[in-house]
Design goal:
257 residues; alpha+beta; Alpha-Beta Plaits; 2 domains; 10-stranded mixed β-sheet; 10 strands; globular
Length: 257
């Protein structure tokens, strides 16, 4: 019998080629699998809740792994402690807990939430985790376009081309802009995201804010299903995965935060 466990973690993606293991590049998954192998003898790999591209951060991220052993809560706490000693400073494990055998880090997730940060003036403290855009922006019109994103639509226009997906439909539950001081934050939540989708949406909305694209033009871009009609993709460094929703009761014990 195999037992399934969820790991709750976070990472600064600046130094990594993304979550997923890739040839000739360092990934977060590579570090987690190496740590589990060294510390707990678990060598059958882990499955992440999704994939983040190179340079993208995760304030919260879930992975699952299977073991023939039924670990006790104190053993999982020790694994958490030892993993954090093993992992580099830009990856942290918050906790490990047992879950039902059919729970899946990726496919059981109900929604995911991302935030994208933009700084409006030169900032020596945040420039590594936000995109510098000093142009004057029409936030009111950008917010109107947020309303056009809501619901289930074909978002191929914001997807990286030549990706292997069954369809381009996503159900967006939330999309909004917030301004705090000289920082702008874009928040978006959906049942799924296409590759490069959030960064393409933000880049297109910045064109709206600069007056290059109208509200009607933004709607036409969505309906075009053509990536070539949308705006540029903003840099990865401003993007952070900030939330993942699962059904109630999926975790036998709460992760440690």
């Amino acid at each position: 019998m195999a037992y399934r466990y969820f790991i709750t973690l976070a990472y600064n993606g600046s130094a990594y080629a993304g979550w997923q293991i890739q040839p000739n590049a360092v990934s977060v998954q590579q570090w987690i699998e190496k740590g589990l192998s060294v510390i707990a003898g678990i060598k059958n790999g882990v499955t992440g809740c999704g994939r983040t591209d190179a340079g993208v951060h995760a304030r919260i991220f879930f992975v699952h792994f299977d073991s023939e052993l039924a670990f006790q809560i104190d053993e999982l706490a020790q694994f958490t402690y030892k993993l954090n000693r093993f992992l580099p400073q830009d990856i942290v494990v918050y906790g490990i807990c047992a879950v039902a055998p059919d729970s899946h880090a990726r496919f059981t997730a109900l929604w995911r939430e991302y935030e994208y940060f933009i700084i409006r003036q030169k900032d020596p403290f945040n420039f590594q985790h936000a995109y510098f855009e000093p142009s004057k922006l029409d936030l009111e019109t950008m917010d109107i376009c947020c309303g056009l994103l809501l619901g289930r639509h074909n978002f191929q226009c914001f997807s990286k081309v030549h990706t292997q997906v069954n369809n381009y439909f996503c159900d967006i539950h939330l999309a909004k802009w917030e301004s705090v001081g000289h920082t702008l934050k874009f928040t978006i939540r959906a049942d799924r995201f296409l590759r490069n989708m959030v960064r393409a949406i933000v880049g297109t909305m910045l064109d709206v804010g600069k007056g290059r694209i109208t509200v009607d033009g933004f709607k036409q871009i969505i309906n075009s299903h053509n990536r070539g009609e949308a705006g540029y993709s903003v840099p990865a460094k401003g993007l952070t995965l900030t939330g993942i929703g699962y059904p109630d009761g999926i975790m036998a014990t709460d992760p440690i935060f």
